[in-house]
Amino acid sequence: MNIQATLPDGSVRVFPKGIAALEIAKAISHRLADDALVAVINGEQTELYAPVESDCSVKFVTFDQAEGKYVYWHSTSHLMAHAIQDIHPEAKFGVGPPVDGGFYYDIDINKKLTEDDLKIIEDRMAVLAKQANPFVRQELSKAEAVAFFEKKGDPYKLEILSELDDTEETISLYHEGDFTDLCVGRHLPDTGKIKYFKILSVSGSYWRGDEKNKQLQRIYGVSFPKKKMLEDHLAFLEEAKKRDHRKLGKQLDLFSVHEEAGAGLIYWHPKGARIRLEVEDFWRKSHLDHGYQMLYSPHMGKSWLWETSGHLGFYRDSMYAGMKVDEMDYYIKPMNCPFHIMIYKTQLRSYRDLPLRWAELGTVYRYEKSGVLHGLLRVRGFTQDDAHIFCTLDQVEPEVIEVIRFAKYILGSFGFTDLSFYLSTKPEKAVGEDHLWEKATESLKIAMEKEEISYEVDEGGGAFYGPKIDIKIKDALNREWQLSTVQFDFNLPERFDMKYIGEDGKEHRPFMVHRALLGSIERFFGILLEHYAGDFPLWLAPVQAAVIPVSQNFMEYAESVADRMRKSGIRVELDHRSEKIGYKIRDWELKKAPYMLIVGEKEQTAGTVSIRKRKSAETGSANVEELVSQLLEEINNKTFH
RNA sequence: GCCGACAUAGCUCAGUGGUAGAGCAAUUCACUCGUAAUGAAUAGGUCGUGGGUUCAACUCCCAUUGUCGGCUCCA
User: Fold this and answer.
1) Fewest CB within a 10 Å sphere: which of A271, A450, A554, A556?
2) CA dist., res. A191 & res. A193, Å (int)
3) Catalytic one of A56, A183, A337, A391
4) Which nucleotide is at minimal CA–C1' distance from A244?
């Protein structure tokens, strides 16, 4: 008896019934058979050794594909658990899934694992991998599985099992050598496929992510089929470390945080502030150009404001304690929106006034748990590039389209062009009537579809007051960061009883869109710093050019060059130190100055400068006027070389 | 907040119970120099903070603040 297998290219091959999927791969090519990690038969993942019993479509998953990596890492997490079981037989196992960038396994063990323990586990893994133990799938009933793990003494597995229903889903175990795990699969044929791996770290993690539960130890690792891949990955982690904004911030003297003065509060040094100023100036100008108006609002407000807005009800945990002023409670603001609404309400608004687009670089303070603070990316005081658009229901869609376009423009100006979009819908706990949610969610969808944007849906991920679109960017290391957010708000217009007079002469409730493009200036700055690894493009660089005289004898000419550039608004510094030129060049390289302008005898005589660009020894020469117009052009174009 | 690790000079880091060290940076002097570190000298720390153990604590213990890796949360 034969079966027909349809391959991804549409061709049909005939094989004997019961052939292992791996044999099909071999028949296609040996290369594919080597690289294949798991088969997909009729759209369902299946182990390579599984027999194929009927006509079907077949494809093979390799490590190049995301699902292939997941299978590979998932199998490695079993291998790691196996090693842990060998070394620490008393360990109880939680879960061990693949994640982006590797896998982890949560274990419950009394011993605190150290770096040395990880090394021992890694060594044991190597031994087990060499044994090429096959991953054997066993399907069984829930009662049998429970009996198994009761005997083994794995309370966490039993807890997971207790929530499964074997009339609806198949319960399966995977055996690999003398290690057995409750697992849906799928897996590699055997551990011999797991070639190169590294255990990366260990940390605490609550069972099932709930802080009321016991904290387990989570061991992270990563693995690859080729040595080069592991090396590249470790190099990537190194590069990320080198680019760490906290490190660069210190090295380049951009910002600091002070233990004595409070965690999560950022101090901007002159050079960091210069870059921030440039970001903000660009932001302001762009907003004015795009029909926004600027607001400024106070940093605190009476409890009436926060009670009305609902913040004291919904957001209190993130707010700082109130302070007494004239016997009344005032609160430092965690958001800007209530203030903008106060401004809205100073006048009777007409539909003719709408949409109102009001923007503010508003500094807010939020209580963040001490353990989550992280450089500039997670702080307790930050400035949002906030704006609120007050409009009619009909205007929502075109306004959202405008915001999306504007976000693309702003992010693109900073070199972020690889964007992905997410639509978050109504969460379980939500305010507002269903038809409004539907309508608003629909407008967001239509807006994105009109812009031909593909997006992912995050069901139930919206804010309690409305659905939202989030935009994530990819940085130079291909890491994703969420920056922009566009959110509907059903809550505040109602709570503050906002109104406008419609064409019909009657009062209507305006709609409110809350949006931030950069998110927070602090966080954005941190991401930008890592994206550029501190090598800011000319328009952002705190020092755009350093003028370096070859010796003190040319100081006067150097001064005149610097002056000329300064007059054109170029940020230039004259290096007057009596050091050797090599020393000064090295120093300015480390400070990441985009241009070094060297002047000596030759240049003084010819009225030129010798130009050295950052990170390239290549030098050119130009007269000062040429140089100035060249730099100004580069600044205006916001180009990055 | 929770689990673990860490905190020594401005920075990067040595220093395993017996009076604190290096490199870089800083300051001074000499050199006046052609594309990634000229040489010499000087100065700089109550070892995060507060308790405790000890004849003696940077070192051991406890608490606290902060940082780092995660968890939870999130701009």
Assistant:
1) A556
2) 5
3) A337
4) B68
Mean per-residue pLDDT, A565-578: 94
Annotation says A366 is catalytic: yes
Q: Is A228 left (phi over 0), alpha (psi -120 to 50) or beta?
A: alpha
Looking across all nucleic acid strands, the nucleotide with the smallest C1' to CA distance from residue A605 is B34
Rounded to whole angstroms, the Cα distance separating A457 from A476 reads 25
Is there a catalytic annotation at residue A337? Answer: yes
Helix (H, G, I), strand (E, B) or coil at A217: strand
Q: Considering A186, A271, A366, A571, which one is annotated as catalytic?
A: A366
CATH code, A66-240: 3.30.980.10
Round to whole Å and give the CA distance between A315 and A325.
Answer: 22
pLDDT tens across A251-264, in order? 999 999 998 899 99
Q: Which CATH class is domain A255-531?
A: alpha beta
* SS3 of A64-121: CCHHHHHHHHHHHHHHHHHHHHHHCCCCEECCCCEECCEEEEEEECCCCCCHHHHHHH
Tokens of A505: 């002469």
Q: Which CATH architecture has domain A545-637?
A: 3-Layer(aba) Sandwich (3.40)
Q: In this model, does residue A459 exceed pLDDT 80?
A: yes
Domain with residues A2-61, CATH architecture: Roll (3.10)
> Is A552 noted as a catalytic residue in this protein?
no
> How many angstroms separate the CA atoms of A338 and A316, rounded?
15
User: What does the pLDDT look like over A331-351, one tens digit per residue?
Assistant: 999 999 999 999 999 999 999
Query: Is residue A504 within 8 Å of residue A354, measured between CB atoms?
Result: no
pTM over 0.95: no
Reply yes or no on whether A183 is catalytic: no
Q: For chain A, what percent of residues have pLDDT higher than 90? A: 75
Question: Which one of the listed residues A468, A515, A571, A591 is annotated catalytic?
Answer: A468
First to last CA, chain A: 64
Q: Which residue has the tokens 């966490």?
A: A156
Q: String of b and e for A338-359 (b: at least 16 CB within 10 Å)?
A: bbbbeebeeeebebeebbbbbb
